[in-house]
Design a protein that fits this description.
It is a single chain. It contains 11 helices and 4 strands; from the N terminus they run H-H-E-E-H-H-H-H-E-E-H-H-H-H-H. With about 525 residues, it is mainly α. The chain has one domain. The chain has a two-stranded antiparallel ribbon with strand order 1-2. Strands 3-4 form a two-stranded antiparallel ribbon. The longest helix is centred in the middle third of the chain and has 68 residues. About 40% of the residues are buried.
Length: about 525
């Protein structure tokens, strides 16, 4: 749909009828075969995303109620250098997935009305730009939550303040509100300009039809002169649409590039989780040979404040079961806490002999989720400290998988969004040269988004079921966590990811002590 340049009508064809067909070919595209079927598939994927996001949100609420934890979406976290704005990535992902999939359903319905039914043409660009706003806000909010959690956990572990709260909060709020307000304003301008352009086009076609009836004998040169005078109003409106599209798509390309950069920073969180899990899995082999007894004290569970969190705040550094030092108690030597050292495959017969047990060597490949769950409830042969350690490792594995799924889905979607946004910013009219490019420009990102969100929600739900489903349930048996293979365990006592900070393990300073 570039600016319209009318050619001279070929001889032998009524010139005004030629111009009518020429303009209609520009504004009325014919979809390729199978477009309706693809729309139906997209509708189904969007509807599944709505239902899956609702289910995931409900599961999160139930989990928090079971743990008697408050439900929050954003929170101010106190650190020694100020307060950080931190989002709850799981709740925000569920909420914005619901909004994004719901808006996607309306987006697909708009294309059905425009290209299949031939109606609501004047409202087309409201939806074509609105969908990008929803995608951008969704990805930015979820990505920032990962980055914030990674920064806070790494700062707490290293006792360094690498990024100030002022910088992080300014970056988060400026991109969020800047993108939201500017894109909404540009969406309104673009939609209004297109509605004016469409109205002018309808008036032009009506005028050309009248001229075709009243002046059938005009020469091609005379018809071209009259038509060019009439089409000026259409081109002026269309030029505003194209300019607005360039600006808004350039903004989208920038925002999605920022999302990718933020997620690269969020990899800190994933690496921290991997180090924590490896640290705890290797601790027995490094510090406790198979013949050495292990003392098993009870781990203290300090209380936390919902509004002023220290480095042991269970809400805002949710992945802190690692070697680290409490900011408030850095002057005191931290206690070295017990490490889970028992392999389920090498269980002792009967109850343990008392506070001292012989630790079995940890398999080099680590323990599976089923083995950890079994050890977490094995009251007969494992102490409370060992069960608590198994619960910590379970929660770490669950959170690691959640973060990996979210990061992977967001980066892939953001890459496609950035590429399409850059393409539309450079040449917004080239996509209308043929239907294939139009469908790629306006449907590749929605395809990637709804599939990515659906896959992410499915994996997150399966991960929750894998950890919390009763061991005698059908789902637990399907996922290999049932009681038949003696790897399942009750979900009771299993820590949620936001409780791990209250159960910190040995710090690096303690490891260095003789």
């Amino acid at each position: 749909m570039p600016l319209i340049n009318l050619p001279e009508a070929p001889p032998g064809i009524p010139p005004y009828e030629f111009y009518i067909q020429f303009i209609e070919a520009i504004f009325y595209q014919t979809p390729a075969r199978g477009f309706t079927t693809r729309l139906i598939v997209l509708w189904v994927l969007g509807a599944y995303g709505v239902l899956a996001s609702l289910a995931y949100f409900i599961v999160l609420v139930v989990e928090h109620r079971r743990r008697k934890k408050s439900i929050w979406f954003w929170k101010l976290v106190r650190r020694t250098n100020g307060r950080y704005i931190v989002g709850n990535q799981h709740f925000l992902f569920a909420i914005f997935s619901f909004i994004s999939c719901a808006v996607s359903i309306g987006y697909f319905a708009s294309f059905h009305q425009v290209f299949i039914d031939g109606t609501h043409q004047d409202e087309a660009f409201y939806w074509r730009t609105l969908i990008w706003i929803v995608f951008g806000v969704h990805l930015w909010t979820t990505s920032s939550s990962n980055l914030q959690a990674g920064i806070l956990s790494s700062q707490s572990a290293a006792r360094k303040n690498t990024l100030s709260p002022l910088f992080m909060n300014t970056l988060y709020l400026s991109v969020f509100f800047g993108m939201l307000l500017s894109c909404v304003a540009l969406d309104i301008v673009c939609g209004w300009a297109w509605s004016q352009c469409w109205a002018a086009t309808m008036q032009l076609l009506a005028r050309l039809e009248i001229l075709a009836l009243t002046r059938p004998s005009d020469t091609p040169e005379e018809a071209l002169t009259i038509a060019e005078g009439l089409i000026h109003r259409v081109n002026s409106r269309l030029g505003l649409v194209i300019t607005t599209l360039r600006v808004i798509n350039a903004l989208y390309a920038f925002v999605f590039t920022m999302v990718i950069v933020v997620n690269l920073g969020g990899l800190t969180l994933l690496f921290t989780l991997q180090r924590q899990i490896k640290f705890n899995m290797r601790r027995l082999a490094d510090d406790h040979p198979a013949s050495a007894p292990v003392f098993r004290p009870t781990l203290p569970i300090p209380s936390s404040d919902d509004t002023t969190a220290s480095s042991t705040d269970p809400v805002l550094c949710p992945f802190s079961a690692s070697a680290r030092v409490d900011e408030k108690g850095a002057g005191n030597p931290p206690a070295k806490q017990v490490i889970f050292v028992r392999s389920v495959e090498q269980r002792l017969e009967g109850p343990g002999p008392g506070p001292l047990d012989v630790a079995q060597p940890l398999p080099s490949k680590g323990l599976s989720v089923g083995e950890l769950r079994h050890a977490a409830e094995d009251e007969a042969t494992a102490s409370a400290a060992q069960r608590q350690q198994a619960q910590q490792l379970l929660a770490l594995k669950k959170v690691q998988w959640d973060v990996l799924v979210l990061l992977g889905a967001i980066v892939v979607i953001a890459l496609f969004c950035s590429a399409i946004g850059l393409w539309l910013a450079i040449s917004p009219t080239s996509v209308y040269a043929r239907w294939a490019t139009t469908e790629v420009a306006y449907f590749l990102v929605p395809w990637m988004f709804v599939i990515g969100v659906d896959v992410a929600l499915t994996l997150l739900l399966l991960n929750v079921v894998r950890h919390f489903a009763p061991t005698n349930s059908f789902l637990a048996r399907v996922l290999g966590q049932g009681s038949k293979n003696r790897r399942g365990a009750s979900a009771s006592g299993l820590l949620a990811s936001d409780e791990l900070d209250s159960l910190t393990m040995a710090s690096s300073a303690a490891d260095q002590q003789p």
